[in-house]
């Protein structure tokens, strides 16, 4: 949602003609003195979070200006990423009702779906014209300032503007591992679920009400938090704490290390109670990504560790692996966390049946298995490697006859071993129940 807030000493408008088929509101006109005019563009993806952020921003701006009237003016020109009229109308009416229930001044919503003519007189003082962007649940504020303004005033480093600290390679890897897209979204959740399950974490919370996780009131002000500890700045946004988190009481650094996040690449940022604004001190563990930029992986408050967002943890695991690769080691994703755990590669068509038998035995144990059937054997082994698949099993004539497999374990690079199918089954059972 994009909003242009204008303090108007006088504002008038009238409808000119329909801009869409059958506009949902009847035509009307209006005249206002000393009011806040909010030109609002609804963007794709906008919902309750944007509505409530925008509403509270409008109310606080109205109070700052001392005006008693807010005009909500549908305005489809502030973004290239417009929501459809149906959605935009719903969002705007919900904005109107949130404003009405949270403010006792006059709220006027101008009609939707019309070309309108308007006249405005703007006094032009420093607070008279403000632009806002409310996006994806991330309201980026530095002590109440929009992120852009905070950066323009030199309050925060440039990299904070970069919402995505992941390099192209990390993103490609996510794709290669099948962690993206609609199915991938499911796989990423699977990874997140595993993280939570593996760690024996108590709950997985979708943070509608963050105070219920922390057991602290007012923690929503974390959305306004930015630490300027020496050496690193980190901004926690609503999205960072709100997307998906898990609460743990184990040593957080150890947890992250077991998951595969390189601890040497994390930074501890102390959060003062002034920043937290909840009457306690705490700290955040921030992962510094290879490409630059950083993401918070954990917030510690009192005796709780809130890990998340889990998607960032998942990405940090992969990013840490890529750093291993930079240093010439083979990056390994923990067997339990691998989206695909075993690749079975038949040497030729004749071995396909044996490969399928192996795959279904392992699948019965709950392993995530693929059979890679197309192309040269070497190419398929490399493909499994590119996908960081922990176990790679090759079967040809000899293996099929003797009910064995040639096994490569990713954590033992350069080595391969012939084991019996039963030994493989036992190993997969062990790995499936292994703890991180
Ligand atoms: C106008 N003021 O913009 N966000 C906000 N309004 C929208 C959206 C959207 N995503 N989509 C449609 N009219 N509308 C007028 C100018 O004079 C509404 C909004 O009222 C818009 C009209 O539908 C045509 O796009 C044009």
Mean pLDDT rating: 78
Q: Count the helices. How many? A: 14
Uncertain segments of ≥5 residues (pLDDT<50)? 136-144, 155-163, 201-243, 274-278
Name the shape in a single word.
Answer: elongated
Q: State the secondary-structure class.
A: alpha+beta
How many individual domains? 3
| Helix content bin | 25-40%
Bound compounds, each kind once, are:
3'-deoxy-3'-(L-threonylamino)adenosine
How many strands in all? Answer: 21
What is the first-to-last residue Cα distance? 42 Å
- Taking all Cα atoms into account, the compactness measure Rg is 27 Å
Overview of the structural elements:
39% of the residues are buried. A hairpin with a 5-residue loop joins strand 14 and strand 15 (294-301). Strands 1, 2, 3, 4, 5 and 6 form a six-stranded mixed sheet that branches. A six-stranded antiparallel sheet has the order 9-12-16-15-14-13. Strands 18-17-19-20-21 form a five-stranded mixed sheet, sandwiched between helices. The chain has helices at residues 48-65, 85-102, 147-152, 168-176, 181-198, 210-214, 238-242, 252-259, 273-276, 310-326, 352-364, 377-386, 397-402, 421-433; strands at 2-18, 29-41, 69-74, 106-109, 114-121, 129-133, 141-142, 145-146, 203-205, 226-227, 234-235, 245-248, 266-271, 282-288, 294-301, 304-307, 342-346, 369-371, 391-395, 404-409, 417-420. It folds into three domains: 2-137, D-tyrosyl-tRNA(Tyr) deacylase (D-tyrosyl-trna(Tyr) Deacylase, Chain: A, 3-Layer(bba) Sandwich), CATH 3.50.80.10; 168-326, no CATH class; 340-432, Rossmann fold (3-Layer(aba) Sandwich). By secondary structure, the chain is of the alpha+beta class. Helix 5 packs across helix 10. The two termini are 42 Å apart. It has 14 helices and 21 strands. It is elongated. 3'-deoxy-3'-(L-threonylamino)adenosine (A3T) binds next to strand 2, helix 2 and strand 5.
